Amino acid sequence: MFLIGTEEGRIHKCLLTYSSQFLETYDAHHMAVYRIQWNPYHPKIFISCSADWSIKIWDHMLKEPLFTFDLRSTVGDVEWAPYSSTVFAAVTTDGKAHVYDLNVNKYAALCSQAIVQKKENKVDTYKLQQGVPYPSGGR
């Protein structure tokens, strides 16, 4: 099973064996979906981010998100931590990194930090690494 995000904000759930149709379509976001990732610890859970400033956490069996987070800027990337089922991080086009742990706080980031100094610089990828106590960002 795999997921595809569209520029219209939809997420399609697909199987290789049913290539002519989608198993499910989620009206996920209001703008382009930039990233979708399955939770490495919970196979029914996935996360998505979008140009509509939001991150959403989903159970693929439900049509509505379990959680929605408004980051007040386009979210370029989001990723589950490889070391925890409840930790994820995201970067926004205003140059900030946001780290969440649903086990600690289900409503707000644990940390939101500017990671680029100048407005003309932007971060559009982000990686939480196993054994590294801090995230790494890139362009």
Structure description:
With 139 residues, the protein is an all-beta fold. The protein is 0% helix and 45% strand. A four-stranded antiparallel β-sheet has the order 4-5-6-7, with no helix packed on it. Strands 8-9-10-11 form a four-stranded antiparallel β-sheet, with no helix packed on it.
Mean model confidence by pLDDT: 86
Oligomer: single chain
Structure classification = mainly beta
Strand content: over 45%
Strands in their spatial order, largest beta sheet: 4-5-6-7
**Contiguous runs where pLDDT drops below 50 for at least 5 residues:** none
Show the helix and strand layout.
Layout lengths: L1 E4 L4 E5 L9 E4 L5 E6 L6 E6 L3 E6 L7 E4 L4 E6 L6 E6 L3 E6 L9 E4 L10 E3 L8 E3 L1
Antiparallel strand pairs: 1-2, 2-3, 4-5, 5-6, 6-7, 8-9, 9-10, 10-11, 12-13
Care to give the gist of this entry?
This protein has strands spanning 2-5, 10-14, 24-27, 33-38, 45-50, 54-59, 67-70, 75-80, 87-92, 96-101, 111-114, 125-127, 136-138. It is mostly beta strands and 139 residues long. A hairpin with an 8-residue loop joins strand 12 and strand 13 (136-138).
